[in-house]
Model the fold of this input.
Amino acid sequence: MADVPIDIAYISRLARISLTGEESSRFSAQFARLFDFIRELQALDVSGVHATAQVIPLSNVMREDELKPCLTQDEALANAPAREGPFFKAPRILE
Amino acid sequence: METGHEIREAIARRDRSAEEVTRAALDAIGRVEPSLRAYITLLPERALAKAREVDAKIAKGEPVGKLAGVPTAVKDLFCLKDALTTCGSKILANFKPPFSSTVVERLDSADAVIVGKTNMDEFAMGSSCENSAFFPTRNPYDLEGVPGGSSGGSASTVGARSVPLAVGTDTGGSIREPASFCNIVGVKPTYGRVSRYGMIAFASSLDQAGPMTADVRDAADLLGAIAGFDPMDSTSVDVPVPDYGVGLRDDLKGVRIGIVRDFEDSIAVDPKMAKLYKDAYEDLRKLGATFVDVTLPHAKYGLATYYLIAPAECSSNLARYDGTRYGVRVDGDADVYAMFDKTRTAGFGDEVKRRIVLGTYALCSGYYDAYYVRAQKVRTLMKHDFDTAFAACDVIACPAVSCPPFELGAKSDPVAMYLMDYFTIPMSLAGIPAMSVPGGFVDGLPVGLQICAPAFEEARMLAVAHAYEQATRHAAKLQPVVS
Done:
């Protein structure tokens, strides 16, 4: 099996997901198989080719800065796991 | 149940009321739902209220929308105001959006009757509907088989003939593959054709909503109802939406169909599949089409390209699920990062975690150019392949899938599952419209033929699919095993 260049512990920490040891080793083996395909891209000559981020010929879509109907504060907060008055409530981030 | 256009006409003639039709659809769903489990949420009260509204308009002689009274299912990633919208995930198991997606609003204004929200692979990541966090959905033609995915619930309920119309979404094949598996028509429109506003995002440069229907005319009508510019989606394109129903054809005289030579080796692996597609091309020829050989030399890099770009976009899009503003929160002893971590670890399933990790990696500093940017460049080459091919032909005909529906649990290896999208990914990366239309049967199970067209030429694609459908009428040859 080809080696996978992914440090899964580091990457999953960046993604804020905790993987068990079993998940990490299983994902590693699966990524190794996927990288057999991905490595084929490295063989292609892409010099001078521009990168396509999106396929449609649109850029800098702007509109007038007008007030439009929007959610009320209560609607916007309706799904909050925790709220306090007009705010989303989350654990303290500053001491 | 009949097609959507037959129902609409019967209601307009007052042969049947929208309420009768809706009750019949809800009954049909109720009969098969214990076997299929196509829906995460049924909306019988909303459906009956809408049906009565349509009946009242007709009684008063008021004009009605073009889908008036037609029972319609919606994949559970379209926000529907105040109704559970889970995206097939535990992390959104309690989410009731405070607004509706543009697709839902357009269905409402076309007077379609939305009957429920359909099951799907979690965050639309999967090709079998087995990645739903809640339960798998079954194939109406083989209860041991998967309905395909990720729009598996939508495909299953239309395939079972419970409702004639459903909306799905397609990122790498999630409309076309389940349509193929469930003996129905599935259309992935041009990227930018249908608004993504209120559609829960997976890979934003690829996601596109589209019809999953009993026949091509229904797909044309449904696409006409949901397509069109929306100022709420900055990637929605402001080009006119033709009346797709008007352009449907019964022959293919003068139509140049491209056959993709690069796909022949891949499909030849399975002689039964190869024969099915050979027969399908022959049927197209009999309708008067001429054939042109085309090549898509970079299509074989589709899987690698897609599995860098889509996970990268997914890792970015799914960063919003952190337990703060909506969805399920798991508290982390008053520590905000522990809360994020516990929420996401408990809330996401296996496949979603896999793709977030892969995508986070592809976007990491140090690897970004080697993987993500390189994949975007190959995407450019793939788009050029299609531009060159369409200079020589009007549409492309090719396989939609490499196999008929497989059994639940048969593809436990994720890479084997990813390969299911081999024939559908290149069109997604190029952003062009592509559809699956019933193409026959292998081992007694349905298989779709894929038709693709240049960007914004859905009318041409639908016209070809209609001629093929009318000449072959494959869908009618097989009845669901439940009804």
User: Anything to note?
Assistant: The radius of gyration of chain B is 21 Å.
